[in-house]
Automatic annotation (TrEMBL):
InterPro entries: GGCT-like_sf. It comes from the Bacteria. It comes from Rhodococcus rhodnii LMG 5362. This is Histone deacetylase.
Amino acid sequence: MRVWYVSYGSNMQRRRLRYYLEGGRPKGGAHAHPGARDHSSPTGDAPLVLPGALYFAGESRQWTGGRAFYDPDGSGTVLARAYLVTEEQFADIRAQEPACYDRVLQVGERDGFPMYTFTTRARADAVRRAAPASAYLDTIRRGVQEAHGWDDEQAGRYLGACVETVAGVR
């Protein structure tokens, strides 16, 4: 069965997602991904806007600096990209993420297939916020541009607001 994997972070950039499917070490990354059992490309993708908030917290071993998390109860909107993958690929993508991404959410349905993302179980107001590394933020920015067709200034304003107002980091 197919499902939509919804990314709101670095995997919005298609090239970055390929490392989760095919394996390898992405530019700027600290470690290599083993890849999925099925290396096939997604059979579709679509830009999404989710209700909620994007914030950065903790410490990423891959990027150093805060990790992106989705708070479905937060105020605002979150830019995302959905990829049509197999259930097995979704499980393999999730397995390559740190253990703190321990909450799977169904965020809707599209074309008869469920849409899933993952985030943390920790409440957004109970985690230590941290500024993301510039390379991580730049990868997310490129993903926003690629998925939503935004220019550099629009994407920069969106992410700047996430870092500044949602994360409380200036």
